[in-house]
Each structure stands twice: as C-alpha cells, then as structure tokens.
Amino acid sequence: MKLGLFLLAAGHHAGGWRHPQAESGTENIDLIVRAAQAAERAKFDMVFLGDRLLTTPDSHPSMITRPDPMTVLSALAMVTNRIGLAGTASTTYSEPFNLARTLASVDLISRGRAAWNIVTTFADGSINFSRDRHPDHALRYEIAEEFVQVVEGLWRSWDPDPYVRDKQAGVYIDTAKMHALHHKGRFYDVAGPLNVTPSPQGRPVLIQAGSSGPGQALAARHAEVVFTAQQDLSAAQAFYTGLKAQVRAEGRRADQCLVMPGLMPIVGRTEKQARAKLAELQAFTDQSNALAILSEQLDSDVTGLPLDGPLPELPPVPGAHSRRDLLLRSAREQGLTLRELYHLVASARGHQIVVGTAEQIARHMVRWVEQGAADGFNIMPAYFPGGLDEFNAEVVPLLQAWGHARTEYEGTTLRQHLGLDLPAPRRSAARAPQEIEAHV
Ligand SMILES: Cc1cc2nc3c(=O)[nH]c(=O)nc-3n(C[C@H](O)[C@H](O)[C@H](O)COP(=O)(O)O)c2cc1C
Predict the structure, then answer these.
(1) N or C: which terminal CB in the chain sees fewer CB atoms within 10 Å?
(2) pLDDT in tens, 291-317
(3) Ligand 1, atom 10, residue with closest C-alpha
C-alpha cells in the first residue's frame, strides 16, 4: 500500500488549527519539517504540498497563506533522506521551460525524490497573471497536454552521465549527450535543451489530480500517480477500474499508474471516542468560512441559502470540475442539507473521512486496496502535528504488521519506493536531424 502525506500545515479540517493540540501553521517551517520527518520515520512514500495561485479573506485557513511548494520542497530535500517530495504546479499559469527546470532542480537536489502534481488550476488564477480571463476547463486540458509533452521532452535533454570532467583533455561534458527539443506547437514554442541534467530517478514522477474525463485522459497518457477524492467504495472501484483501462488503452502497464485517493483519519480508542473527536473538530468550523469554501468547490455561491433544508438545485456550470459533481452527487445520494454539506467540505473538501479505532481505519484501508479501489492513500490529518502523530503511532504499525506497509525503505528514489520504471531511454537511432545539429 502506497502512503502519501498530504501536508497542509494548519490542518486539513478548516477548524483543525483551533484544536488544542494543533500548532500553527503554513508559515511554520519547523512544523513542516517535523511533519515531513515524521512521515519519513513512518516510511511514507512521499509528502505532498498542494498549491493555489490566489488568496481571499475567506480562504481555508491552510490556504489563506501558503509558501511556494517547490521552494519548501527544496528545503525539505536537505532535512530528509528518503521520502518522496511532491508539489503542485499549474500548467495554466507557468511556462514549461521554467517549470521543467524548477522540478528537475528539486529532483537533483533531493537525489531523485521529486514529483510534480500536474494541475490545470480550477480557481481563477488569471487575476494575478495579467490575463483577461481564466481559460475554460476544456481549453485548460488542451494546454495541459501540450505543456506536459514539452516538459517531458525537456527532461529528455540529456542522456545519463554526460559529465566527462577530463582535466587532461579539457573535456568537461559530452555535448553529444545533449539534445535540443525544437518544439513548435499550438501553445508553446520551446527550443531546449534544458540546462539541468537528470537525477538518479531519471526525471520527476508525474502525478495528476483532476478526475474529470479530460483529467483522466491526461492521467492515462502521462501520470504515474493519480490523486483523487472518493467518498465510497463502489464509486472508487469504478474510478479505479476505468482509469486503469484507459492506461492500458494508452499502451501502458496498469501498475505504472497508481491511484491514491485522499483519506482523513480520525483515530479514537473506541469508535465512540473517534466520533466525539470529529464532533469536537466540527464545533471549531466557522460557518461563513465553510460556506465560502463550499461555494468555491461548487463553483456556485451558496451563501444565503437555507441551511437546514435539502440542497436546492444549483444552476449548471459549463465545463465544471469533477469535485463539484462529486459533492452534488454525495449531497443527493445521502440527502444532505447545506449545513451537512458544508461540514463535509470544511472537514476534508470531499475526500473520505474515516472515523474509528486504529484497527477499523487500517482494515478500511486494506479493504479498499484488496477490493480494487486504490493502490494507496494520501493521508490528510485534520490538524498538525497531532493528527499525523496519532496515525503514525497507531495505524501505521498495524499496516506494517499485516504486511501492507514497509518497515524500511528498500530504495533511495521515489520511483523505487513506488515501483515505477525509470523513464525509457531516448531512441537515439530515431533522432531528428535538428537534434543532431544541436550536438555541434
Ligand atoms: C488530492 C488532490 C489534490 C489536489 N491538489 C490541487 C492543488 O494543489 N491545486 C489545484 O489547483 N488543484 C488541486 N486539485 C484539483 C485538481 O487538480 C483539478 O484542478 C480539479 O479537480 C479540476 O479538474 P477536474 O475537473 O479534472 O477534476 C487536487 C485534487 C486532488 C484530488
């Protein structure tokens, strides 16, 4: 079972920072370092930092301020040794060359532990990027496809071991191992080559976190890990089976694209105590903040609607993202009121919340893996560091004892932890003429 720590330092629960055992917050680099190191001691595959490119006064407390993930990951690279380091970066609001370079640098600094969570950015990032408007959902994914192809191409700029360092002959690097890209496409014009050479894992691991049709298609072609929000076993099984079929249809092995739903564990000595813990957290939720978070996730303003009646029909949003569909489906299937729905979203933003004893939580996780709903989980502690410490102290040892989680790292790179292949070597026999020109 793969394990990721989804690290939101002021807690995943919107009221988590108010928990007596919570430490503040996203500005607290010591807390972030301790959490990453704790996840490494528990032998997690990776730690993941999400991102957003705007902030508002009513944002989730873990998102109202947020240091740049790649910068934080390079700091974490120096204070951890084995754990993978994953971060979000947007294909809508970055340039492929800059991002390929930043990620390759984090991969080099961490000696092969970096991963990129490819997102197209669902919140309107345009306000901070001198653009007239946020591209619509379909266009964002068309841009993303070409963007990822360019980044992958740039990461193939160098064959392994190009450094000659022959002091006598005066040869520093073998430029025959350097390959330009000469990409000219619909959105991007990038010559290459990249000026960063590959890490021991060849290139960063690619993660994709959009669950819509176009999101899944992008994942099937490129992603090695898929993050997703799933509420129940049967929907998660359908998502898992469907995605793996698309991966095979792209000519890839299904085990080279790992599905990791988010999971918020609420651990108690008894189930009753765990339920009381969740209720305690819910009492910390600020109603207007929760409604603002829900409005963003639903792409519709729900403030001012009656809280205790059934959720009214919301006007359709063209090209809406998959989280909206998930939340509306859950609300309809479970007959949730607006108040219940905002609590669900303030707690874990539509990801599943598993409440119970350590054994119940561990059994739930094993069931999802054994029944074809997940290859592992992105663990989302409600608050830090206590929520993580409890999971590590009580749930991880059970998973280890049952043979579902490692007790020691076998390898040094993230690819090795996840059982992912090294990227295929470039087909030098099929080199385009312009690439050969670029050698001289
Ligand atoms: C575990 C997880 C993490 C995500 N992290 C981010 C993130 O950090 N930034 C972001 O803009 N979107 C994030 N997303 C949202 C998706 O990437 C995507 O933008 C959104 O769901 C809309 O695309 P879709 O309709 O294809 O799902 C995340 C989704 C999941 C499931």
Answers:
(1) C
(2) 999 998 898 999 989 999 888 888 888
(3) 121
CA of residue 174 to ligand 1 center, whole Å: 40
Is domain 2-264+357-439 annotated with CATH 3.20.20.30? yes
The count of residues in the chain is 440
Question: Mutation test of ligand 1: which of 53, 88, 380 has the most ligand atoms closer than 8 Å to its C-beta?
Answer: 88
Q: Is the CB of 84 under 6 A from ligand 1?
A: no
Q: Over the stretch 314-348, which tens digit does the pLDDT of each residue have? A: 888 876 678 898 899 989 988 999 999 999 999 99
Q: Is the CB of 323 under 6 A from ligand 1?
A: yes
Please check whether residue 44 is in contact with residue 38, taking contact to mean a CB–CB distance below 8 angstroms.
no
Domain residues of the chain, as ranges? 2-264+357-439
Task: Give the DSSP letter string of 24-87.
Answer: --TT-HHHHHHHHHHHHHTT-SEEEE---S---TTS-TTTSS---HHHHHHHHHHH-SSSEEEE
**Ligand 1 atom nearest residue 121's Cα:** 11
Local structure of 264: helix, strand or coil: strand
Q: How far is 40 from 5, CA to CA, in rounded Å?
A: 10
Structure tokens belonging to residue 87: 């971060």
**pLDDT value at position 437?**
40
The strand ranges marked E within 167-271 are 171-173, 183-184, 189-190, 205-208, 225-228, 258-268
Taking alpha carbons only, the member of 63, 65, 60, 76 closest to residue 5 is 76
User: Does 211 contact ligand 1 (Cβ within 6 A)?
Assistant: yes
Tokens matching residue 420: 């992912």
Q: Is the pLDDT of residue 387 over 70?
A: yes
Cα–Cα distance, 431 to 440 (Å, whole number): 14
Residue 134 confidence (pLDDT) above 50: yes
Atom 31, ligand 1: residue with shortest CA distance: 228
Mean local confidence (pLDDT), 425-440: 47
Residue 184: band (very low, low, confident or very high) from pLDDT cuts 50, 70, 90: very high
Lowest mean pLDDT among 96-110, 252-266, 308-322, 344-358: 308-322
